[in-house]
Specification:
It is built from 10 helices and 15 strands. It is α+β, with helices and mostly antiparallel strands. A 7-stranded antiparallel beta sheet has the order 3-4-5-6-7-8-9, covered by helices on one side. It has a 6-stranded antiparallel beta sheet with strand order 10-1-2-11-12-15. It has a two-stranded antiparallel sheet with strand order 13-14. The relative contact order is 0.15. The model has no long low-confidence stretch (mean pLDDT about 90).
Length: about 350
């Protein structure tokens, strides 16, 4: 099984590469990692979050472990599924509607670009997982993810779209005794049908760490940016989201967060938003924004709500000008070919 290889690769990678992030963790987890290692920190995180996590996640992880036994244990699957709580990614997102796409025939366009580097095992084991829940247990949705990972950091149902980004400047308290954020994001993708439902899910959850969450909904054709933290959830629309022109301008029908702290000397997404305002189609986003801005190295997705289309790209082998792979070199997702999925057809495919 490829997941057997992935789990072994991941555990070696985690022990070697997660160390720089330890200083940003709660003190109790820091102490455990410093004495016993990263894998112990992942297991402690699992213990802290257990009572806040819906049972269906444990059932799915147990089923995966049972199918792969004895090569993979339940504890390995559980540890792997805790990694987002210890390490964060610099990502970009936007939601565009109304005047932001006025010169197009689109209704709502949402970007989710994951910047997590290509030096780890994740680049080798990507997966577009389509879930078909039983009747009464939510709706069909897709999660751009990795083998064995049952949470979501990138999800689209045709009803809701989910984006996520690290929130570096959160300065209130944090905890890991709560629901892992990637499990909450998956539940938004599976169960929620409106912005209000998704916000209520975040607001009533026992939260752990600080991230930005982007949510789009087809019933309103609007997007909201949420500052999701242990103490509170703040929700922003196009009129009140934090802006500081000219580096980070404010527009009607547009909310965006780039991967760099602004204002700074780093490239700014705001200049690209200004240039393409009114024309923020999926095609322009893919061709003229992500490439020049270089965001979405591990994977990227664009949700076209009006056409119910999911565009996705993943990091992988470099493709040459003759459309043939070049062995031994990797390219980020934003520089590779994209997949176009008709979500209605994809979701109607038999299990």
């Amino acid at each position: 099984s490829r997941f057997v290889q992935f789990s072994q690769y991941f555990e070696a990678y985690a022990d070697a590469q997660f160390a720089p992030y330890v200083k940003n963790l709660p003190k109790d987890i820091q102490a455990i990692i410093e004495e016993f290692g990263v894998l112990a920190g992942l297991e402690f995180t699992a213990e802290l979050t257990h009572k806040y996590t819906p049972e269906h996640f444990f059932e799915e992880m147990q089923g995966l472990a049972d199918a792969l036994a004895p090569e993979v244990t339940y504890q390995q699957v559980l540890r792997f599924n805790m990694f987002p709580e210890l390490i964060k990614a610099s990502c970009s997102m936007f939601g565009a509607w109304g005047q932001a796409i006025a010169n197009t025939t689109d209704t709502l366009v949402q970007l989710r670009a994951l910047d997590f580097g290509m030096d780890g095992p994740f680049v080798k084991y990507p997966l577009l997982m389509v879930y078909h829940p039983d009747a009464g247990n939510g709706h069909t949705f897709a999660s751009l993810t990795w083998m064995g990972f049952v949470g979501s950091v990138t999800a689209y149902s045709g009803i809701m779209g989910v984006s996520e980004k690290v929130w570096l400047h959160y300065n209130l308290t944090a905890s890991r005794a709560g629901i892992p954020f990637h499990f909450l994001l998956r539940d938004i993708g599976q169960y929620d049908t409106t912005l209000d439902q998704a916000v209520d899910r975040m607001d009533t959850a026992v939260r752990t760490c600080s991230i930005f969450i982007g949510i789009g909904a087809n019933n309103s054709d609007q997007f909201r940016l949420c500052e999701y933290g242990h103490e509170e959830v703040l929700v922003y629309n196009d009129q009140d989201f934090p802006a500081y022109p000219p580096a980070h301008p404010k527009f009607n029908g547009l909310v965006f967060v780039d991967k760099h702290t602004q204002p700074s000397d780093d490239p700014c997404m705001g200049s690209l938003m200004t240039r393409y305002y009114g024309n923020l189609t999926p095609e322009i986003t893919i061709r003229d924004i992500l490439g020049p801005f270089q965001s979405g190295d591990l994977h990227a997705a664009v949700y076209d709500f009006g056409r119910n289309v999911l565009y996705a790209s993943i990091a992988g082998v470099t493709i040459g000008p003759d459309n043939q792979p070049i062995n031994g070199t990797l390219s980020p997702a934003y520089d590779r070919p994209w997949f176009r999925f008709d979500a209605a057809a994809l979701f109607a495919t038999p299990q």
